[in-house]
Amino acid sequence: MFEGLSERLSGIFDALTQRGALNEEDVDIALREVRRALLEADVSLDVVRSFVDKVRNRALGSNVVRSVTPGQMVVKIVNDVMIETLGKTVEPIDLDAAPPVGIMMVGLQGAGKTTTTAKIAKRLTDRFKRKVLMASLDVKRPAAQEQLAVLGKQINVATLPIIAGQTPVQIAQRAEQAARLQGFDVVLLDTAGRTHIDEALMAEMAEIKAASSPHEILLVVDSLTGQDAVNLAKNFDDRVGITGIVLTRIDGDGRGGAALSMRAVTGKPIKLIGTGEKIDALEDFYPDRIANRILGMGDIVSLVEKAAQTIDAEKAEKMAAKLRKGKFDLEDLSDQLAQAEKLGGISGIMGMLPGMGKLKDQLASANIDDKVIKRQRSIILSMTPQERRNPDLIKASRKKRIAAGSGMKVEDVNKLLKQHRQMADLMKAFGGGKMGKMGKMASM
Ligand code: GDP
């Protein structure tokens, strides 16, 4: 899937990764190509615009990590923005409501609604161990209700018995009642579709929604219809209100544009994707995996992620050098506290170092835990840069100002200053060798 977009973008980035330095002009040339590739993949114009803007701002504002090329850095940024555009996290069907949980399936005829209803029923039954009842509310298409009954038999999921002559609303109500009486956990309502959106269809959906107040309303759309799928989603959301989207026929989608626009245009998550005709061809929608499939550049992304970690290592080295010179100001303490927070507590780091037992005990008696670390950092942040570099400047009136600025008491400021003095003394006493090691440890 997505071969088209993936191939085009790969071509662009291949060219880009061979360049040495990246300037504004390079970024713009690359982004012009990205823009063209996205438009050709049928991503909607507004989404392309904001996508390219975001990448541009981030690319120009970010430092290129040492040991990757600027082009690789741009690939990583494109990847990040793509994941954000697709929705960041996987969003499963929400079953968190009093049973029976109603799930209403809506969409145009032929989108794959009935098939998807059965796929979801099977998944909820097999994987989530729910007792599921399916009901077809399609009274227009003669064989629709039978089609669902046949599927139900195939996958061993109950369907609501067919009573001829009932309206969709009556069927919905009967389904809910039956589910309640017979102890079903979930009721799946497969509504009727039309070949295109019309007033009657929207009115019918709104009526069913009002009568059955479903917990989820999932729009089933055919990803092959590209832009139309996106417009359709917007329309359904405006008129009926949807809680999520299922994109079908991803298996045949060479362009991937619908997936990329859908979330941005509707604000509603893509919850599942249909990947084939078979009943088990249904997958969770993982934005990072899809971005990887679209870009086909997972290797570069993980390379840049690894390289970014070395930035921390470089910082720690600098700190170690300062310590060797016997300089340890409040700026350094703040940096060190930030590192400690990342690594699960300063005493944890100290404990790993030979000969640091005493310092560790001191820190323990000073009660350094994560909450304390946060408070201490806020005190340091309320100081002027001058004060951080030269703590001796901090006398009574400055202490008052700092305390007020950080929402602490003067007494807390005193405690922090005392602790800093103790740490600085201790570090001086230990000299360079061990602190060098500590710098390395802190960067792991
Ligand atoms: P409905 O009119 O919306 O209920 O559509 P159906 O569920 O009857 O599906 C129409 C056709 O699309 C059927 O032949 C399905 O097998 C097929 N279909 C549904 N979902 C997918 C999918 O994810 N991939 C593929 N390749 N075919 C699908």
Automatic annotation (TrEMBL):
<keyword id="KW-0687">Ribonucleoprotein</keyword>
<dbReference type="GO" id="GO:0005886">
    <property type="term" value="C:plasma membrane"/>
</dbReference>
<dbReference type="GO" id="GO:0008312">
    <property type="term" value="F:7S RNA binding"/>
</dbReference>
<feature type="binding site">
    <location>
        <begin position="190"/>
        <end position="194"/>
    </location>
    <ligand>
        <name>GTP</name>
    </ligand>
</feature>
<dbReference type="GO" id="GO:0048500">
    <property type="term" value="C:signal recognition particle"/>
</dbReference>
<comment type="function">
    <text>Involved in targeting and insertion of nascent membrane proteins into the cytoplasmic membrane. Binds to the hydrophobic signal sequence of the ribosome-nascent chain (RNC) as it emerges from the ribosomes. The SRP-RNC complex is then targeted to the cytoplasmic membrane where it interacts with the SRP receptor FtsY. Interaction with FtsY leads to the transfer of the RNC complex to the Sec translocase for insertion into the membrane, the hydrolysis of GTP by both Ffh and FtsY, and the dissociation of the SRP-FtsY complex into the individual components.</text>
</comment>
<keyword id="KW-0378">Hydrolase</keyword>
<keyword id="KW-0547">Nucleotide-binding</keyword>
<feature type="binding site">
    <location>
        <begin position="107"/>
        <end position="114"/>
    </location>
    <ligand>
        <name>GTP</name>
    </ligand>
</feature>
<protein>
    <recommendedName>
        <fullName>Signal recognition particle protein</fullName>
        <ecNumber>3.6.5.4</ecNumber>
    </recommendedName>
</protein>
<dbReference type="GO" id="GO:0005525">
    <property type="term" value="F:GTP binding"/>
</dbReference>
<comment type="subunit">
    <text>Part of the signal recognition particle protein translocation system, which is composed of SRP and FtsY. SRP is a ribonucleoprotein composed of Ffh and a 4.5S RNA molecule.</text>
</comment>
<dbReference type="GO" id="GO:0003924">
    <property type="term" value="F:GTPase activity"/>
</dbReference>
<keyword id="KW-0342">GTP-binding</keyword>
<feature type="domain" description="SRP54-type proteins GTP-binding">
    <location>
        <begin position="269"/>
        <end position="282"/>
    </location>
</feature>
<keyword id="KW-0733">Signal recognition particle</keyword>
<feature type="binding site">
    <location>
        <begin position="248"/>
        <end position="251"/>
    </location>
    <ligand>
        <name>GTP</name>
    </ligand>
</feature>
<dbReference type="GO" id="GO:0006614">
    <property type="term" value="P:SRP-dependent cotranslational protein targeting to membrane"/>
</dbReference>
<keyword id="KW-0963">Cytoplasm</keyword>
<comment type="similarity">
    <text>Belongs to the GTP-binding SRP family. SRP54 subfamily.</text>
</comment>
<keyword id="KW-0694">RNA-binding</keyword>
